[in-house]
Amino acid sequence: MIHSFKPSELPSPPKSALDILNACADDSVDYSEITRLVTNDPQLTVEVLRMVNSAFYAMSQEISSLSQVISVIGVIS
């Protein structure tokens, strides 16, 4: 049996996630601003680095800086 949730039962996303989503939706925001916003959330930074270095992206070399990640994801998207 699948349980359905009411929106009020779901946790609110972290403010940093909302800030990043808003920045990504704004065409006037550049990569450096998005990098700064992601850097403000250490857990997200680790997860983004792990994601971009996964087999899904098949990078030829390991990416270790967040600015590289934002550039790669921005180009791929």
Short description:
This protein is mostly helical. The protein is built from 4 helices and no strands. The chain has helices at 15-25, 31-39, 42-52, 66-76.
Task: List the SSEs and their pairings.
Elements: H1 15-25, H2 31-39, H3 42-52, H4 66-76
Helix pairs in contact: 1-2, 2-4, 3-4
Question: What would the keywords be for this entry?
Answer:
mainly alpha; 4 helices
Task: Give a description of the structure.
By secondary structure, this protein is mainly α. The protein has a domain at 30-77. It is built from four helices and no strands. The longest helix is centred in the N-terminal third of the chain and has 11 residues, at 15-25. The chain is globular and about 45 Å long. The relative contact order is 0.13. The model has no long low-confidence stretch (mean pLDDT 85).
